UniProtKB/TrEMBL annotation:
One Pfam family this sequence matches: Metallophos
Highest taxon of the lineage: Bacteria
Source species: Xylanibacter brevis
Protein name according to UniProt: Metallophosphoesterase
Record keywords, A-Z: Signal
UniProt xrefs under InterPro entries: Calcineurin-like_PHP, Metallo-depent_PP-like, STPP_CPPED1
Stretches assigned to the Calcineurin-like phosphoesterase domain: 68-240
Length: 281
């Protein structure tokens, strides 16, 4: 019986290893789509830091306006069909100055969700800004938000009204962070003070909800009283369209419904006050 020499065995082993390497390369190439993007990758192509650009446009276009008509939407999550219908309905109106999304752009904070939602929101005919919601924190979602939209707390001024947009998702930090950020609120009381006379606060989770740091809910109410002429507050999160007098002191909080319920709210701000309407689409 003929036996293999050591040279033959070594040669065959090298051929086997080479074959396996080539097969692995082919497999990885064929499965490129599978391994190309991690679901929580934070490297994005296309538009980033959207809010900064949108704010610049809003402030430039509406600096001297006597009235503002704003559409508030929220909690679009993964309801892409209804979100598209919501955007279409807003575009058909031709009377909206800008749109505010009150958070929960995604359901689980993944890259694909952020990208799909961004693509839909980009079809708006008017500028929009977006806040971060608690679902947007999942995984590396908060990092994605900062890449795509910017700071978690931000403000802008239009028609001499300051819109103060706050991150109130305290439980996403296990209450270990300054959320809501009182230092930021204090800064905004006087920042650009000569440019605004009235204030509107926008947040995702309202006081006394499961996401808010309710240990400071009373302090929050006292703190925001220092803002010049606080008109009202707007929030999302609870998936219902309501008007709440949360602190029983006359300050109204407008709850914005989710896109799945096919409802959003329009608030028109004028020199003499404001009015609001609930829109079913």
């Amino acid at each position: 019986m003929k036996t293999e020499s050591n040279n033959d065995i070594n040669k065959r082993s090298k051929q086997t290893i080479l074959f396996l390497c080539m097969a692995m390369i082919c497999l990885l190439t064929a499965c490129n789509d599978v391994f190309d993007v991690h679901p929580y990758d934070v490297n994005y192509k296309g538009e980033t830091h959207h809010n900064k650009q949108a704010i610049a446009e809003i402030e430039q276009r509406f600096a001297s306006r006597d009235s503002l008509r704003i559409a508030f939407i929220s909690d679009t999550h993964g309801w892409y069909t209804n979100t598209k219908a919501e955007i279409d309905d807003i575009n058909k109106r031709n009377d909206i100055d800008f749109v505010v999304h009150c958070g929960d752009l995604t359901d689980t904070g993944t890259k694909k969700e952020y990208e799909r939602t961004r693509k839909i929101l980009q079809k708006l005919d008017v500028p929009y800004v977006a806040l971060i919601g608690n679902h947007d924190f999942l995984g590396t979602g908060d990092q994605s938000y900062q890449v795509l939209y910017g700071s978690l707390d931000f403000s802008f001024i239009a028609g001499r009204v300051k819109f103060l947009c706050l991150n109130t998702n305290a439980t996403e930090y296990d209450y270990m962070a300054a959320v809501p950020n009182f230092d930021y609120i204090e800064q905004e009381i006087t920042a650009r003070a000569d440019e605004f006379d009235r204030t509107v606060i926008i947040m995702h989770a309202p006081p006394y909800s499961d996401q808010f740091n309710n240990n400071v809910a009373k302090a929050f109410r006292r703190y925001i009283d220092f803002l010049p002429h606080l008109m009202f507050c707007v929030y999302g999160h609870n998936h219902n369209s309501v008007v709440n007098n949360i602190y029983s002191d006359g300050l109204l909080f407008y709850g914005i419904d989710c896109s799945d319920h096919r409802i959003y709210r329009i608030i028109t701000i004028r020199k003499e006050g404001y009015d609001e309407e609930e829109v079913h689409f």
